[in-house]
Amino acid sequence: MLYYWGVRLLFITQKIDKEDDILGVYHEWAGRLAEKVAELNIICLSKGVADLPLNVRVWSLGKEKGQSKLGYLLNFYRYIFKLRDNYDLVFVHMNPPYILLGWFWWKLWRKKIVYWNASYKINWLMKFALSLADKGVTSVPEAFNIRSKKIIAVGQGIDTDSFRRINAIEKRNGSILYLGRISPVKNLEILIKALGILARKDLGVNLSVVGEVREGDKYHQKILRESERLGQAGIISFLGKVPNYRTPELYNFHQLFVNLTESGSFDKSILEAMACQTLVLVSNKIYERIFPGDLKNLLMFKEKNAVDLALKLGGLLRLSGQESEAIGKRLREIVVRDHNLNNLSSRLISVFNTLL
Description:
13 helices, alpha/beta, five-stranded parallel β-sheet
């Protein structure tokens, strides 16, 4: 491992809040990076509950206080100027506008810029941000779909010490977990249709949907209407938001985890479930090269195809406990080898070191 203990890092991200259901993981990223740098300053749009080492300071642009967009902008410039003697390198996470706003000053001050992107739907802003950055980093090559020698794949960054098999929690037979945003790109309606097919076969399935349900949102209302009959039959339950640090319990309780995002996206929740030795079912074609050959057909279904999803769900639910356990151990090995948080932070530090 190559640690550059003297680097002083400015980390720009959306939110620092260990209680957040989606973004809480980046609180953990910050903690691991802090172990490998001399000083870490974080600029975020919003700050919640933070418990970070003494060499970390968090500067919020003020969203949690109702700050205006003009206020965000003024705070951003105030912080990058105020802190300019306290950082050597800028790490911008998933927010290309910040590179456009700060690029001129960072180049003037000879600060190197590293841009993390994991959105496979590339737009001009992302391309422009990469052209201004010194390096681009991402989880897997497909997640930053631009041909550029600047881009380096460093893994996703799963805390495999927290996301692991908890033997004290017994998996519930027939239990299926969906965890993530409830939005059209997540294709939750396909899973609900598949459950309707399985319900007619009386397989004793039940689904837990973990994610915020927003009143008045059209897609949310559609999902609630489509799931009403299944809910009345006790097949589907909406559990609301759960902080990221509590999700290992959910992965461990459920027999299967289903993710329906389109190919190209690389949801960390799939890897979290795998790290917990929970069987996963995905349609994302990235996993054709991640899963061993004998598991591809078992753990992948045709994209947006409820019939094939129901077929694959039925097959996994019929596996013996011993078979499921053996597959779960293999899935965890993949995450530990290629996507654990310790490796990610070390790889990022190595990238930073090449620029300094």
